[in-house]
DNA sequence: ATGAAAGCGCTAACAT
DNA sequence: ATGTTAGCGCTTTCAT
């Protein structure tokens, strides 16, 4: 592989001139530009990112930290962010953190050594202060880490409202609300939004783990004791578990009981019946997150520290209504 | 961040000695070892991977190239490989290639500049000769790129046989076989295996795109004209599309028509009914792939160039039988 | 067993 | 506008 010096020699200039040409900073005469360009083509030269990073202490890599890569929401997010970041010339590293604090810190340490240019954080296991100390451009995606750290997330309060309004428009008067642990802020917001519109709606609330199977078992039990006109599952994975439980009870959807999910992952259109859901606009989240990181790298001002993306209702067959 | 020279100074030795200590090559006295160890602890020193890579022309990163990160099979595979690779001290970069030849070549070029230590290739858009020229340890995952390139994949011929045998055991006499394009070797193998057991079974074959919706439309049309006792969908995504089509026709599964899928992705246990499927053992594929790459890095002999992993039947509710 | 020195490929003052 | 020089943090001969 040719180096910058090979190019310089071939073009009859010094390597600094080539470097300036490459980085488009400093002056380079038109003449030099031409010969350098030709030399690069001739030698099929590509700058070595490693050497570049070592010299500048900045790489062209950004990383996305997620708790579980097999969770479809995160994969869809990863895809969007990867594509966007690629447009800006960055390579995205996807890091699956799992639930171990230690692994996350270790991985971040490694990323720092690689002079990672920026971080998208979709995990939440470490104290915010740890991230703040990092001194790396970063944006929290779909969760608030702290006031200071720029954030792009869905307006979950609005999402909760949308879910509630839809159910009420479907003539529902009592509903079972399946939510994640109250430690999860995003869950709290969804539920708060839901309540904020509830008016005379009767709500029973229950906490479930994220897994499909766990939710199924839980709902099965619930349905044994009591009937509901509708169920609001605050994630689509839970909605699928709920669907399975309802079907196992031989209840019809939406005739006997209506169901609305949350997230908008692809799978909700593959079930029978398809599931009405409050969809997060993942593409937009990805775009904004990347732009936000980009601005930080350019030291531009970030006008809104916390950006909210509105979710939208996707009406399918698990609810009545229009 | 402290450098190797800081450690050397603190330990009262030269940086070469520290380097030798770090890489466990060359001689280092017990005494030196102790003081270096202490210095490292004291300064919380971590070697800079970039600098290391630049000097050695080898990084600690491996990459997995997939055509579509939102395809659950690949995410599950990615998770396994990531975890395995992490055990060996590697960071895995997940690269979503999409369908563009150009992007794949560009990305590989970038990876080379980063002195990528190894490649897991789960795409198939480029001529095998391109990969062979690369001079990077690599393993083809779930597809054969060429004779020369080490491969770990499911024994799809066996998988096809398993599917066929199961259907026959379920009393099926005629079946619709939904397959991917004949350009996909893995599809060909599955189908070949299926036929190899078919005996008196009547088989109708049809080609479908991978997408759930596309398959649904196709199957819907098929079912309009004719009835089948069973359908073999050669991927789970297709199986889900098929399921939807069958249900839309108001046929019962498995009473009116039985269904078997292929891949073993999580989703098949979330549909109603759950789908019987021939499951690829992704964990094992991941483990073997990483070990195979590792061996190449150690210049160990690779006993079997092409490793086959046996798939297993997961019997669920979309088929009759035991 | 250890250190000095050169170099990996690039960037960034600084001088011209 | 361009070249010289000195690193970035590490590895690796080659002496000693």
How would you spell out the order of helices and strands of chain A? Answer: HHHHEHEHEHEEHEHEHEHEEHEE
The unreliable regions of chain A are none
> Structural class from helices and strands of chain A?
alpha/beta
What would you give as the CATH superfamily of the largest domain in chain A?
Answer: Response regulator
Helix content of chain A: 40-55%
Calculate the terminal CA-CA distance of chain A, rounded to whole Å.
63 Å
Q: What is the CATH architecture term of the largest domain in chain A?
A: 3-Layer(aba) Sandwich
- The main sheet of chain A orders its strands as 2-1-3-4-5-11
Describe what this molecule looks like in 3D.
2 copies of one chain form a homodimer. In chain A, 45% of the residues lie in helices and 18% in strands. In chain A, the strands form 2 sheets. The first copy, chain A, has a 6-stranded parallel β-sheet, sandwiched between helices. The first copy, chain A, is an alpha/beta fold and 322 residues long. The first copy, chain A, is elongated and about 85 Å long. Chain A is built from 12 helices and 12 strands. Chain A folds into 3 domains: 4-47, Orthogonal Bundle (434 Repressor (Amino-terminal Domain)); 61-154 and 282-309, 3-Layer(aba) Sandwich (Rossmann fold); 156-281, 3-Layer(aba) Sandwich (Rossmann fold), CATH 3.40.50. Chain A binds chain B through residues 1, 46-51, 53-54, 59, 69-70, 72, 75-76, 78-79, 82-83, 86, 91, 93-94, 96, 107, 109-110, 112-115, 212, 240-241, 243-244, 247, 266-267, 269-272, and chain B through 1, 46-51, 53-54, 59, 69-70, 72, 75-76, 78-79, 82-83, 91, 93-96, 103, 107, 109-110, 112-115, 212, 240-241, 243-244, 247, 266-267, 269-272. Chain A binds a DNA duplex (16 and 16 nucleotides) through residues 1, 3-5, 13-17, 19-20, 22-23, 25-29, 32, 47-57.
